[in-house]
Specification:
- The chain is built from no helices and eleven strands.
- By secondary structure, it is mainly beta.
- The radius of gyration is 13 Å and the shape is globular.
């Protein structure tokens, strides 16, 4: 079973920054796309950003483009989400996600990000 462990969430004022981390011990980490999603109370879990296996390709939700940056360190088996210019509407639980070898999904437990106005 693959474990994904998110960290780095917290309370920050609007305009501030946070960096989230998602670490795993998965042996084949460097072979898979990694993603960040977020979920606010009463809302669906939404895509935030993704990064290809070698970091050569990234994608972002329109709502975070220009403010968030996804990156990965395959040697450390960790993916990051640098979040700048945070807004109250960025408040959510942020989840790390990747695929299994059979096409299923692995999810972390989530980390809470709260942005105060």
């Amino acid at each position: 079973q693959v474990q994904l462990v998110e960290s780095g969430g917290g309370l920050v004022q609007a305009g501030g920054s946070l960096r989230l981390s998602c670490a795993t011990s998965r042996r084949t980490f460097s072979s898979y796309t990694m993603r960040w999603f977020r979920q606010s109370p009463g809302k669906e879990r939404d895509f935030v950003a993704s990064i290809s296996w070698n970091g050569g390709s990234t994608a972002y939700a329109d709502s975070v483009k220009g403010r968030f940056t996804i990156s990965r360190d395959n040697a450390k088996k960790t993916v990051y989400l640098q979040m700048n210019s945070l807004k109250p509407e960025d408040t959510a639980v942020y989840y790390c996600n990747t695929d299994s070898s059979t096409g299923n999904s692995y999810w972390g437990q989530g980390t809470q990000v709260t942005v105060s106005s």
